[in-house]
Amino acid sequence: MSQPERSDDPFKLALGVFALDALPDDEDRAIEAHVARCRRCRAEYDGFREVLAGLALLSEDDIRQLGGE
After folding, report:
1. What is the pTM of this model?
2. Mind spelling out the 3-state secondary structure of the chain?
3. Long-range contacts made by residues 9-17, C-beta under 8 angstroms, separation at least 24?
4. pLDDT tens-digit profile of 23-38?
5. Does 5 have pLDDT greater than 70?
């Protein structure tokens, strides 16, 4: 039986910031080590990276059409 997903998991909560490469070095190393051994967090991290890669392809006009500045 699998355990329920914990929403207070500090690794899970930091994955988005880690994907943005915006964590302090010590936290970055800890998350990187965790992601290397946790399949669930690796999958979520990979998902964040895919979204970020897609967002990087948007033009300024695309962003305006989506309601951005």
Report:
1. 0.75
2. CCCCCCCCCHHHHHHHHHHCCCCCHHHHHHHHHHHHHCHHHHHHHHHHHHHHHHHHCCCHHHHHHCCCC
3. 11/35, 11/38, 11/41, 12/41, 12/44, 15/41, 15/44, 15/45, 15/48, 16/48
4. 999 999 999 999 999 9
5. no
Residue 20 above 90 pLDDT? yes
- The CA-CA-CA angle for residues 15, 10, 13, to 5°, reads 40
CA 26 – CA 41 distance, rounded (Å): 18
